[in-house]
Amino acid sequence: xxxxxxxxxxxxxxxxxxxxxxxxxxxxxxxxxxxxxxxxxxxxxxxxxxxxxxxxxxxxxxxxxxxxxxxxxxxxxxxxxxxxxxxxxxxxxxxxxxxxxxxxxxxxxxxxxxxxxxxxxxxxxxxxxxxxxxxxxxxxxxxxxxxxxxxxxxxxxxx
Length: 159
Fold this sequence. Notes:
Elements lengths: L2 H29 L3 H9 L23 H27 L4 H20 L13 H21 L8
């Protein structure tokens, strides 16, 4: 099997695994939580998006990744991670703008991932960062969808 096929298979299977975990375990557990608490839990993995800066580190990737991928992916992840941290603090502290901040973080993060996924041609150059798009990005995509679903529910603000 070639590198592109392995990458695609791992990516699709990881989305499936995360979706199954989300559907059978996470969603039922979150259904008993307030809107703020559920969104805070769903925001947690995004607070580690700074790890995408590894796309810029020589030796971690096989060779410098193309700037058209590496810079937007790395800095988009960094921005999303910072926005996720702010949204998390807002949710846990009860700021009035908490849901607006979650919308902003979630939109920026989703756009960042969709933009990065357009560059599957860089998969053979990923080196040690291979785990990011094949394991971590599927988790992020699933939680982005769950966040959008929770935000659009129309339930009353809980606090």
